[in-house]
Design goal:
This protein is mostly helical. The chain is built from 24 helices and 2 strands. A two-stranded parallel sheet has the order 1-2.
Length: 489
């Protein structure tokens, strides 16, 4: 286990040395893509990317097998300490496959804390941000809690422009969110699946997809998911007020976690006892505090419907998604906008139907709630999201780490492995001579086909929409919290 961990640290450190943030960051100029950084030519970047991802996944597979077979014989500290080393090795990496997002975080924070302007209305290009990137004309698409959180970097937002230091700060925040989520995975699974918490920790915290997307690229998705995992732990502890406030915090970072509201509320309602009025009274304080939190978070930035302009601009576009493929099939045009509304309506309707079925499973118990939450995120990405980026698969994958059964582990590994490669396909599809429609669908096939197939096999094998979660509860009974755990919650 030690040799495997050290090999991963060395691999990540070597990749960071080749993509060293202080070397490649340009205080003025344009955001560089990984092909530009690793050139010359296009063969060398592809080889370097495959060496990193395939090598890391093979070492991860070894670690996962060791965690599965010998977890009782290996000191826990060996499993738990290495993710800190992994994150440390990656924190100074120039974002290899999504530099624009990190720069957008920085630019919006600069708008808010240096110029004291509203980042939900004022795009980075209006503040003379010194770096050009693809979203320079788009206001912030995130929630107000994210902007408020970036206030921790306000001391660096000075006329002296500590640009590099602030970017490193955002990378450290991403690393902290990764380690926080890893801790919550371990903590939650230790209560719901005793004896498998170390396996779940390795499954999540040693995973190259998670590490490269979050710490390597600096994405804020795990900041949102940190509050989701806290909310789920509060749900298991029957801490209803904390649950609803934490969920609100997550939604106010990235709006997508609002999808989890229905199954969480259903779980809470079915877990409470007494008359409907008694259940409503038990949930009312949390709902009131969550609403108050939202009002306070929006207050400094409220600009009417314009507050949501950035989010609506991004979600109104299509890229590497099922709706985009359906639009092309309906219109017969790869690049056209015809039939986009119809494609969205059809895929959105399909998602609404599936979402109703899977969300209803949450009433059965905590594991069923976890699986229902996973399903909502997974099927939203698979069916309804017009704008898809590979790191979005962090949303369902992180939730699935809380369910370390054979079905959950198989799905987690396949989802994360498949979504290491759409970047490569997207960049090189025209080099391979693919005709336009095949080029359009190529990354969609890579990112979704195998995960969807494995999900179908898992559902058929467990003969349930909750992947056997209710059967696990019936067999073990460990899912429900003890009186001591409820008191701690």
């Amino acid at each position: 286990m030690v040799a495997t961990g050290l090999a991963l640290v060395a691999l990540y450190a070597s990749a960071t040395a080749g993509l060293f943030l202080p070397e490649f960051f340009q205080p003025t100029g344009s955001a560089l893509g990984w092909i530009d950084m690793l050139g010359p030519g296009r063969r060398a970047p592809a080889v370097a990317y495959l060496q990193l991802t395939v090598g890391a996944m093979l070492l991860y597979a070894v670690a996962l097998v060791l965690a599965w077979r010998w977890r009782a014989r290996v000191p826990r500290v060996l499993f738990l300490a290495f993710p800190v080393l992994f994150a440390s090795a990656l924190v100074l990496m120039y974002p290899p496959t999504a530099a624009s997002d990190l720069f957008h975080y920085h630019a919006d924070a600069r708008t808010a804390w240096l110029f004291r302007l509203n980042p939900f209305v004022v795009p980075p290009g209006d503040t003379d941000y010194p770096l050009l990137f693809s979203w320079n004309t788009q206001p912030s698409p995130y929630g107000p809690a994210w902007t408020l959180l970036t206030g921790i970097f306000a001391p660096l937002m000075t006329p002296d422009e500590h640009l590099l230091a602030t970017l490193v700060g955002f990378k450290l925040l991403a690393a902290a969110s990764f380690l926080g989520c890893a801790w919550l995975v371990h903590r939650t699974v230790s209560e719901t699946h005793p004896g498998r918490e170390t396996l779940a920790f390795v499954l999540f915290a040693w995973n190259p997809f998670v590490l490269l997307r979050v710490v390597g690229n600096g994405h804020n998705d795990l900041v949102m998911l940190f509050f989701v995992l806290l909310a789920l732990l509060a749900a298991r502890r029957r801490a209803w007020t904390a649950l609803l406030v934490l969920l609100a915090g997550s939604v106010l970072i990235k709006y997508i976690s609002a999808l989890l509201g229905p199954p969480i509320l259903l779980y809470a309602w079915c877990s409470l006892e007494g008359r409907p009025i008694d259940r409503a009274r038990a949930l009312a304080p949390g709902l009131a505090l969550a609403a108050g939190f939202a009002v306070l978070a929006y207050a400094p930035f409220w600009a009417g419907t314009a507050t949501f302009a950035g989010m609506l601009q991004q979600t109104g576009q299509m890229i590497t998604s099922t709706p985009d493929v359906l639009r092309a099939l309906l219109s017969g045009e790869v690049q056209g906008a015809e039939d986009a509304a119809l494609a969205r309506a059809l895929t959105g309707g399909a998602f609404a139907f599936v979402a109703t079925l899977v969300a209803w499973q949450a009433r059965r118990g905590f594991d069923s709630l976890v699986v229902a939450s996973f399903h909502l995120m997974f099927f939203y990405l698979l069916l309804a999201s017009g704008w898809f980026r590979p790191w979005y698969m962090l949303w369902p994958a992180t939730l699935l780490a809380l369910y370390p059964t054979r079905a959950g582990i198989a799905l987690f590994v396949v989802m994360t492995t498949s979504n290491l490669f759409p970047d490569l396909v997207e960049h090189y599809r025209y080099d391979w001579g693919l005709e336009p429609f095949r080029a359009l669908i190529a990354p969609v096939v890579v990112q979704f086909t195998l995960p969807a197939a494995v999900w179908l096999v898992a559902a058929l094998c467990t003969r349930s929409l909750d992947l056997g979660a209710s059967a696990h509860r019936a067999r073990t009974g460990v899912e429900e919290p003890s009186e001591v755990e409820r008191a701690a919650g």
